[in-house]
Amino acid sequence: MSAALDTPAPPGPPPRTAARGRLAIGAAVTAAVLVLAGLYALIGRPDGEPAAPLATGSLTDQLAARVVTELEKATPQQHTDHGHDLGGRSGGLVCVAEVYGVEPATAGSVDEVTRAYGYHACAFTKDGYPFDVAPKLVGPIVVDGAPFAVRAITGGEDFRERVRAELPAEYQERAFKGFSGPERVEALKRRYQEAMPR
To answer: Which residue has the higher pLDDT, 38 or 159?
Structure first.
């Protein structure tokens, strides 16, 4: 005697489940992009200039974002105090920064940092020049943690000596080379163009 064994196929997902999953992921990504775009629009500065980058990511990224905020909101006198000669200009400044060293090295938050070292670049937007010929302030910076203060090491005959006096040996060569890659200069150019009157 033989019996036919009919085993039903295991129940599977409805045929369109994979498509629905992809659609849900696409909708979630689109929503996230729209939320980020909305945040950018909300945090834009009232004078129409683009907002400084948000402080997210690593400790050095957070410090760099705070440096940018401090430099961009500073008065002409404050710029003079931290080493910039604005030559009588006021306002209309967009900046980028990179932080490559912190003290203590074990700091886990911005509040724990007593001193940081990095590089910055700022461009004046009020003069109306194309980016390539716009006046810029560029160079190494020393950031004090409490109270938070940014000091630029400006050019001049004794520039190398001042860098060596202000920065630990491990960061000196970095200070002479500038940014670690082209991304920050590209970001400065983009922010400069966004800030120009239309």
So the answer is: 159
